[in-house]
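Re: that chain you flagged

S.,

Sorry for the slow reply, it's been a week of failed gels. I finally had a moment to sit down with the sequence you sent. For the record, here it is as I used it:
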Amino acid sequence: MSKSFSLKKIVIITSIAIIALIFLLLLILSIASKKPIAAFYGISEANIKGITKVLQTTHTRKNKKSAPYEILVLDDTTSIGNAIKRSKKKPDLLFIYNGANAESVINQNVKKKLGFEPSIIEGMPTSIRQITPIFNKKVIGVPLLIDNYEVDVNVAKFTASSIENINVLSDLENLAKLSKSSTMAPVIFAGGDDITLINTFAALAEALSGKDAVESAKLRIKQSIKSGKSSQSAFYELLKDLCAPEGEFYEVTMLLKNWMTYGIVPKNLYHMNFTDVRSFLTSNLSTICFMTLSEHRLFQRNVISKFSSVYVPGKDMNNERNFQAPVILTIPMKKNKVINKSIELLTNDLQTQLSSATGLAPVQANCGIPDHQADDVRYWVAASGKPLPAFSDAVFTNKPNKTSFAQALRSILQS
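Prediction finished late last night. Pasting the structure tokens below so you have them in one place:
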């Protein structure tokens, strides 16, 4: 009886051990075969496609039948923290523009002791190295590509004018005035798009009033949000102060109001979207357009080739510039050899391919580039002070706040 019981006990224990071993093996195989997840936050569809194309070449899976990364697009209407929390899948690698949301991720990753040796940013211009997040001598977020807020000028209209160069903002304004009789809208941008309005306004503010004024405005807006004052009416009251004489935004406010008064910009400017802008440029109805390098790449070649891109000129040529040139960072979210290898390749050997696939400027100073637009942006950023993140990314972490601020700003500019 006791022998039978002992035998039965041994069989049960052995069976449990075998089941546990099988489960453990399956778990190990599952982990080993699991694809790392590359997540994108706040990146355009076209740029996601371009980055993904190059990313998938950085590693080959053992079966050689599938791409090495699973791609995840996070909800960028909410903060990055909420977006990750709500996502069923968690990112192992993150692509994100520098700004407030990127800073929150980086601050979390400092605790995980993730990062690279500073040698990974060798070969980048000083201005890019200056904005690279480094903690405890580790690079936590690695610069990958440079976007830019630029001005696109109709070459034929410029050639026909008496203006020799566009060196300062008054040159741009004079060109707009000279072309007023021969075009429907001398100056346009997608003022009906919240992010475009905020960032174009901020780019002009930096050009007219300088980086310190823009940084001061950022701080005041952030303080308003932190204190719970983030409604449209609260932002309107704050903007009344920022846009008043002696305010940080006074000069840019007066510039845009004057452009509206004298017909430099169309009456419906603050209702125009990117499709409207594309129609105006395609039909040769505008001389000057404010857009990003990413948006520049969305035009057909026969249309955009009629325009030459320049940086947003300042009030004079003597002051140091800090262009609004957002940088896409790549941030490892977990320790993983495959991810580390991919980041190292993207940041160095594959910079030319990345620039070609996205049309954005590379961060490496000496790598090949697809065309002069990308090369110009790289040069402008290298020759200026630290590039500024997009104002909307630097200040706001969710869409509702951006929308409320943009609506308040429209009210101020149309009053």
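What I noticed first: The CA atoms of residues 161 and 175 lie 7 Å apart.

Talk soon,
D.
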